[in-house]
Amino acid sequence: MAVVGRTHRPVLEPELCQSCRVCLRECPAETFEDFRHDPETVRGYLYGRTELEQLQDLPPCQAACPLGQRVRDYVGLIRQGKPKEAILLIRRDNPLPGVCGYVCSKPCEGACLRGSWEEPVAIRELKRFAAHYEMEHRSEILEVLKGWKAPERGKGVLVVGAGPSGLACSYELLMRGFRVTVLDALEEPGGMLRAGIPPFRLPREVIDHDVGMLLELGMEFRGAVRVGDGVPLEELKGEADAVVLAVGTWRDLKLGVPGEEAEGYLGCLEFLGGVNLGGSRDLRGRVLVIGGGNAALDAARTALRLGPEEVLILYRRRLEDMPAQREEVEAALKEGVQIVPQVVPKGVVVEGGRVKGLELLRVELGEPDPTGRPKPVPVEGSEFVEPADWVICAIGQGPELRLLSGEDDAIRCDDWGRVLGYEGVFAAGDVVTGPSTVVEAMASGRAVARRVAEFLEG
Known about the structure:
Layout: E1 2-4, E2 9-11, H1 33-36, H2 42-49, H3 52-55, H4 60-64, H5 71-79, H6 83-91, H7 97-103, H8 107-111, H9 123-136, H10 138-148, E3 156-160, H11 164-175, E4 179-183, H12 192-195, H13 204-216, E5 220-222, H14 233-237, E6 242-245, E7 251-252, E8 265-267, H15 268-276, E9 286-290, H16 294-304, E10 310-314, H17 326-335, E11 338-340, E12 343-351, E13 354-368, E14 374-378, E15 384-387, E16 390-393, E17 397-398, E18 425-427, H18 430-433, H19 438-456
Parallel strand pairs: 3-4, 3-6, 4-5, 6-18, 8-16, 9-10, 9-16, 10-11
Antiparallel strand pairs: 1-2, 7-17, 12-13, 13-14, 13-15
């Protein structure tokens, strides 16, 4: 990039531009503070609307990605009409590109500087485009990936859990030359991708493709194996040189209010898992969903497709405070889901052992809590009953299995991901961090895989 004139306006070379504005950091105007705030320049616009700390960490899209993907580079390749080169560059860091093309939380787009003055670059959609190119040229891409694999090292790793973190861990270890066997309680690999995310958000053929590539690269999968209940961890340790626990968080958290044991009261994962894995449920009547995250939105939109009269989401803060992605909230509203803000459950109304409604309290919003959002404060005397035939609780998840010799659910690790007290046993993903996004779980799986490799290499 060249510069011209007193205000050092950028003169772009279109054939080199990747629309990310990373070149701003190299401009001589950075040296002169007065030039940084010139309103006639792109730089001045950004300095007036962007935290300076963000400008110091360019390219921000790559810095924001938990996987550290080279966003500018693969977006540039797609722009040049080179989808093969783009998907191969994505594959350097991302073991599930198809999945991320549909359900990634898009931290890269949130950090995109272009979003300071217009819409950010549609990075996730571009990744989806590249992933579909791979699906249409499967054998060609697979041949390249097999060529990337390191020579066989003669050591094997057992990965417990076939969700995002377990699959990402497996990919990294496979590419480093280790044998990998994955166990999972479900009959098919995918974990929460299959059981927790509905098909209208993540098509099953996309999961099948990404998992199929791992199987082609040498991953062995054994389904319907529940470690901890039926298969003790100590028994597994003798099957491999290292074990990675990537079992996720599969237990629905409860509200702790009276009536949760009533018929018609469901946990979010209980409900979504039953429907997404091929079950059926008749949800006639009125459905209330408690929560404000993506899981609550998935539950509400899934419920809406099962024929109830109404679906309402009950949330304790304002609509704009909901942690769910904006696009998911907008999609739910367009489909007919209603959102009732600033209410908290006080108890389940039960008649004859079955749900008949939910007693609620209205809340006012007080000072910010540790998350930075206003703290809900119940308004005394504001109780009312919302009639319901079904209640779905989507307030969070926790770990489910008692994996470690009958101890409690907590898996305690050191800073390297090694499970304390168990030589050669590591843990990754949500079972360590708590519920996270798909891409964060994948990043955890890859990081732990690198530590497993270091352990096995001595």
